[in-house]
Write a structure and sequence with these properties.
Largest sheet: 7 strands, mixed
Number of strands: 15
Radius of gyration: 31 Å
Shape: elongated
Strand order of the largest sheet: 2-3-1-4-7-9-8
Helix content: 40-55%
Strand content: 5-15%
Amino acid sequence: MSLDMAGYSAPGQSNQRIPVSPSVEQRGLVRPVLAQHNGREFKTKPEYFLVEFPSPLDAAKCASDIQKMINGYNTSAPSKLRINIRIGIHVGDLVQAPGGISGDAVSVPRSITKYGSICLTRPVFDQLGTKFRRPLQSLGTRSLKVPVELFKVVLPWEDEKEGSKGFDRTRIVVLPFANNSPNPMDDYFADGFTGQLISTLSSIGGLKVIGKTSVMPYRSGSGQLDQIARELEVGTVLEGSVRKIRDRVEITIELVDSSTTERLWGERFDRPVRDTLALAFDIAETVAEELKVRLSAREKVLFARKRTVNPDAYSRYLEGRFNLNHPTQVSVDRAVRSFKQAVHIDPEFALGYAGLADCFNIQADQRWGPSGLAMSQAKTSAAKALEIDPSIGEAHAALAHVLGEHYWEFATAENEFKRAITLNPSYAQAHHWYATMLLNIRRFEESYREEKQALEYDLYSPVINTGMANLLAILGRTEEALERYRRLLEVGQEYANCHALQSMLHTSLSQFGPAIQEAKKAVGLEKSPFNESILGWAFAAAGMKEETGKIIDQLFGRMFNEPASQVWTALLELAVGKQDEAFPLFEKALAAKDPDLLRFASLPWFETYRTSPRWERIEAMIGMTKAP
């Protein structure tokens, strides 16, 4: 530690000479504090001390106490005798040489004292634990002998910084944790623990937690803290690292104010892997405490539960969650294998079953695998998870989704959605799935409110943003819808569903040129029955029924392999005036509880096709409510 008397000049050095007497006072005031914190002076001059400490924490506490003592002294001292002390702290080696002691531990602290009343380097920052409670503010990187990041200790009497540029401190993002494990293949563990923390924090009603889809673009460490704050509109950032070695895991945590970059809390944990889940709850509870968020009575009971997991089962679970980051058919199959291994190792591991339910829901929605199998497995897996642990919000959401989307048990599904959101208020997927079900049963305003909630927690999810654009179009807010589609396609031209939905909106507005253009883009990206039918519908609306007929023939040719084409082929039959060909297809979709039938039944663009008594009978079988 270097302690430098700011503005001091020895006789003859400057016309602006400060008397030597304050330096004498300085020594009288400072030396007792050095002794209290095990400081050893090894170099002194009238204007400064160089002091060695056993640990960075001792040095930081000593520096804070010295400044507190000097501040008290200056309050009553005459202005000419007031002291301005600047302190620099660094970790490094001392080199004993004939000319005295040297090395970075000597040169660096002296060179950084000019940056603040207490300034320390990144190596010191990294070693300070929670026992040092003063906020730390990053000053950025400075070039000394080598570039080094500096931090300023924010002292109690210094002006309070404005918090987070207007963003609520309880709105928080968990940035992807760095993998510091010797094995780079342990990325899955760091990534999975990030997701676990997001999920656990999301269960605290007083916090607003950003969802994982919006978090993952920062996985490479891209983006400065203030940039992340602006993009995600967060007041607080939680970041850290994971180091896994055999059956133990070391996790370093840092909670930072996103505007001032003040370090609000930080700690390093060394735990057995079996305690990792319990650690996630401990961290979440401390974050809430630091942000002055009170847990509800229900949350206190939830957080008080003891949680240990089989380390092998938990590792397989995190591996499964890692594979769901970008859910392709191959990655979801891998996730299923990982979750199955987890519950095979520990048949009472509820999170493993919840993970399986998520996988099977994806497979059912995407129609990957035998018809009906995935939806049955999703329901069974979610129910098993809740049988073991009814407090898992994700499992309630998974059960709600499969009941609403594939079994059409809308009332039961709604109760499950509400339970999921009560348990996990920031779970964006639950809000989005609930919005989808509300749309399917034509409760459009309520659907819009839920999708808006989903967006609050997962701003950059393409699926949620597409859902919001679709709802805006349904509600007649055409310009807003088109603008959202435009922004989505600026980010990712590969969003086939976005092109298809935009095409539907153009068709409904009799804008046939743009409708056909967008539909062709959708088909070019993904030749699905839905996208082809939207192109065929645009052709039919534009009077190009011959082109529509060609698409009907193509869909019929693929119908045995792609049952989804029944609903959309029926749409095209109606569009060319062939009701007798359309309704047998609708009847087959009804028998199979095809979710596409819900889309056709709810979207206002198809209202003119839903006036036949034959259709009313189908609606009654679905259990649809009349549009408000």
